[in-house]
Amino acid sequence: MRSAARNTPDHGTGAGSGDAVTEEPDIEEHPESPGEQTIAFRPIRDDEPAPELASSPSGSGGRLSAGSAADAIEDEASHEDVPEAADDPVRSAEPDGASHDAAAEKTEESESGPADDDGEQGAADAAYAAYTEDAQSLEDSADPEDDSKGAEDAEHTEHAEGTEDAADELDGDGVRSFPMPEPVSAALTEALNQLRTAVKGLHFGLDVPGSEEARKAQAAVLAQLDDYVIPRVHMSTAPALIAVAGSTGAGKSTIVNSLAGGKVSATGVRRPTTATPVIVCHPDDHEWYARGDLLGGVQRLEEPTRDAPPGSVVLTSSPSLPRGLALLDTPDIDSVVEEHHEIAHRMLDAADLWVFVTTASRYADAPSWSLLRRAKERGARLVIVLSRVPPRSREVVVKHFGRMLHEYGLGEVERFVIKETSVQDGRLPEIEIADLRMWLSALSVDDERRDAAVKATLNGVLNSFRTRLPALARHLETQVALRADLRSDVDAAYMGALARIDEATRDGSLLRGEVLARWQDFAGSGDLMRTLRLRRGVKGHQQGPERVRGLRAALRAGLEALVNSAVQQAAEEAVARWRQRAGAGDRLAATPGLGRPAEEIARRTTRTITAWQDHVTELIRTEGVTKRSVAKLISFDVESLSLIFMIGLLGYGATDAPAGAGAGALPQRLLRGLLGAESLRNISAKARSDLRARVGLLFDEETLRYVDALDSAGIPDEAAATRLYQATYNLEVAR
Amino acid sequence: MTAVSTAETQHGLGPRLAALAKIVELGQGRLDPALVTEAAQLLLRAGDRLKLSSDHTVVALAGGTGSGKSSLFNAVSGLELSPIGVRRPTTARTHACVWGIDGAGPLLDWLQIQWRHRFARASALDKGESQLHGLILLDLPDHDSIRALTDHEAHRLIQVADLIVWVLDPQKYADASVHRRYVTELTGHDAVTVFVLNQSDRLTPEEQAECVADLEDLLRREGVAHPRVVATSATTGRGVDSLKAVLAESVAARRAAYQRLEADLDRLVLRLVKDVPELLRVEPMLDGARRAGLVDALCDAIGVSALGEALENVYAVRSADWVGWPFARWAARLRPDPLKSLRLGAVKDDIRGLVASSVTAQPAEVDNAVQALADGLTAGMPEVWRDGVREAARSRVDELPEALSDELSEVAPPLDRVPVWWWLLKIWQYLLVVMFVASLAWAGAILAYGVFKAGRPPAEVLGDVAVLPWVGLMMISVLGLGLFSAMASRNFVVLAAGKERDRLEHDMRRRVGVLAQDMVVQPVERELTRYNEYFGAMAAARR
């Protein structure tokens, strides 16, 4: 809303601001660019030459060029707290009486009674607040002024909410160029929010090569979105945040101090010197930075302390700095304290302009050039300061550095050279930084230039998303693919084991060792014959012959051995396959216990096999209906018969071997005679598939251990990559 | 004295390097390949360096670009040998200055210093420089400029120099490129590392003191226990003499090369043992219980005891056909046979055929037996070695089942074997039957001729009624004898089968034991011995 108020005078488009337009040309304080100049900036010009203003941070007196009318308004408004205070200065800044009327009206409307209360004391504050940015007003003023101001209100809400029509309105206003943001379309806001969600939702669980980088890149993108992109698209280009970055000992803090005209950041011979970033701004901008749209997640500190929490920044102000700009003194990018590098990079990602400081002895350092590359990648606007240049070698060094920059494709970048000189009180002699100060001042007053710079950086960042985000998505896809591969490795290993078991239960290899001996015992000792009894006369239920139990146990043991050996092999194979996968597979394979079957596997196998045997007995009991002709003559012991059946099924292989295929087919022949070929085939198929299912279940449990190990590393969301692509695309469209 | 201490160091270093060689040999495929490569390189480097001149000490001036290495190099050598400049990076090629050129040639060749960058100081002629005799001073290119990203000269020489002088300056002394990449990596190299804070003329004395204190602090935090920091200024010459003194001390001791190698070795060994928290020795020979366990498991895999039981049972049953009482057998035949009624008569032949087939070992059980042995042995061992032992145990597991089966077929009698005495007993039984039939006929004749007077008996005894009781008695006793001998011979069969079974089990155990020793135990023991050697070497490589 305030922004609206500010714009309207220049524009004449806003409701009820007609008077202001007529007044504007009269104002003498902004001679250079009357049309483009914003009210908020007029005073800067005014103040700049007047050093005494610097001493009074509130800058009340001189700045109030608008005169008495403004004063009056301020008086009314001054008692109110921040939001209102922010409101006032807009009016106060309005040049003259005519606007006064309008403004006064508004004030009365909006802040009926209490506005009159107190007089003078607030004037200074109000004036100071006048220069705080519209962005602030966006947020703060919403509540108190709701309904009272039609058009302005609409605009205001638009800022907060991003509604479309308000955006249009703003657009009309914003053409004028003031630090109004370009109208933010709902689509862009939406696209950015979507992007943020998409990036936040990424999860790189597997430690494949490059995942650490991907995680860092994700954090960087997220921080940049929060700290910079999202706030920045919603606000004007002023104030701009200028990050001073460079190697340790390059003199970043010294330059900041010199520009700020005071010791705002610690300097010294200890390396690294600066640990907590320092923001220095003009006192008028202090509140804006304190509120923090930019670097929203970063805690503000009044002054540097030893134990400053990692995510914090010192905020201080100095009147020596021009308005609309803030200097951000960052920690180094190359000292032993690695946390500094991260902080520095985060700060740089949130900055509108980068001032890269290097020295005559450092300009060839690799870290410096990687920072320059980063600036290039991000499309950030850059100026380079070559500091600590010994006067004698100035020519050579500057030329050489220039050539290197040129070769690197940075020949166009603006450069400043600072001589090696004695530093007094942490500051350089004024003469050394005159150029730099000029440049800053120009940036401060020349909206277009600043605008262009800020926009360029913002665009550069958005452009960099075109490559950074797909890179993230690609990495995620790699992870998803790798996970699928790892999963299929396990499956393949266990499928192989299952196939081996299948094979072994078909080709008769089970009928060896103890099983065969027991079977010979059972058959040879006549127990086999004894299981068949003639149905005659009295016939109680006969106990199975004694050797049945032995055979059954042997059969179970044989099957168990088969399964256990297969499981062991499968576990080894799964791990071996994982080992061959780079990075993540290797690490996961090292998970203790994966290389061998689970501890309780033996018990589980026993249970499985016993259950199967019981099941087969049950099958024989219920489905193995004896041929009627046989049943008349013979009864048989189910227990034994099921054993004979198992031997036939597992030991001799396929049940439908032709009759009389030799001595091997004894059980089949017997069973076919007893049960009939049809029935035998049915039962065989059922029993076989049941065994397969049971062993499959056992294997599934085993497989679960691998899946758990995989999952503990985090399950990448397969849709996340698509969402990210989509969000990136939407962002492009919205731009 | 110098010679003594040198010999001492060398004496300690040699066995340790030998141990490292052993580790490299045995660790192949078991250690991180990168680590093995590194160890092999260290061995190679140590071998080369120790062969080359021990009278010379290679001192490398290393540091970031612009810290004044070349200036310092010139200041120490007293000559303008290495070009200095303001452009960064300045030095691209390593320069060397040798005090006392004799014997230094091969060493410089090994260091790959180009001829045109070699300079010699005839130290004897220099006043006050004699204590530097034997010094080879290298001026390295920087390691942190963009050029160094593609040129690893500095990195290479930092790895091989005997003594490293880090040239730092007030601007860059805390750069990560020095500290993270080298200082932290070279902890434990205190004896062969010197830090120089160059360009001290840029600082006030107070600042310099603060700087030095801060640097020492930083170094201590990074694990340099006793940092040697010398503040110098190549331009004013301040501190250069102190540096020379430090160098002279090292050069005179002639130990830097050994110390450097020792420090490298220490570090490498530290990394080697990192994976293995404690060095545990295992018993290289398998104890009796484990062997017995393995043999038992293998015997089970081939079913020895089951076969023994089968032997007993089947013999007992089959003997009925041979040594049983024929009358009982005939009586049994009269009973209806269920199989016959099912027209399954051939089953009996099948059973006979089944019994005739020989038992072979179950491969899955053999597998598991071997696996269990390896698992039991290796509990607590590092994973790679567990795998190694397992592999060793399994090395011949594919042949094992067949070998076991062969042994068994040699030892085990076929279940359908018929011993000679069964035949004899069968003949005896039939003899008794014949006798019974004969006495029956006799009794019939007596009854016919003697009692019913059917005619004249052909012989006296056939008609003599008085003989009849004796004949009856004979019949009964023949039957009794048959029954008795059937029972007795059955017992004999069982007894013999029991004996057979004992013999079988005993023989098989012995044979399986031999097989297991050959095919499982020996490879395992070899592997265990290797394991012990490996850790012995590890212990020896440690100081």
Strand content of chain A: 5-15%
H and E order of chain B: HHEHEHEEHEHEHEHHHHHHHHHHHHH
Mean pLDDT of chain A: 72
Strand count, sense and barrel status of the largest sheet of chain A are: 8 strands, mixed
Low-confidence stretches of chain A: 1-181, 536-541, 654-664
Mean pLDDT of chain B: 84
How many E strands of chain B? 7
Q: Describe the oligomeric state of these chains in a short phrase.
A: heterodimer
- Percent in strands of chain B: 5-15%
Radius of gyration of chain A: 42 Å
Largest sheet of chain B: 7 strands, mixed
- Estimate percent helicity of chain B: 55-70%
Question: How large is the radius of gyration of chain B?
Answer: 47 Å
Strand order of the largest sheet of chain A: 3-4-2-5-1-6-7-8
GO molecular function, one term (chain B): rRNA binding
Transmembrane segments (chain B): 427-450, 470-493
Domain G (chain B): 59-178
Protein name (chain B): ABC transporter
Keywords:
heterodimer, A: 735 residues, alpha/beta, Rossmann fold, 3 domains, 8-stranded mixed beta sheet, two-stranded antiparallel ribbon, 59% helix, 7% strand, rod-shaped, disordered N terminus, B: 543 residues, 20 helices, 62% helix, 6% strand
